[in-house]
Design brief:
With 58 residues, the chain is an all-alpha fold. It has helices at 2-21, 25-57.
Length: 58
Amino acid sequence: MRALTEFYLERVAQCADEAKTSGLANQRTKFLHAEAAWQALANRSARNERVQAERELV
């Protein structure tokens, strides 16, 4: 599961880089929206990892 979160975070960084280097406003907006979506997935995945780890301790 950790690999999935790492994958999501790599996509976050990639979209942020693309947004910074984008010359067109609409492309920048597209990459910023994609970055936000990937970040939401990463957050959800990390939360699920924490919950699973807590359940394993009980």
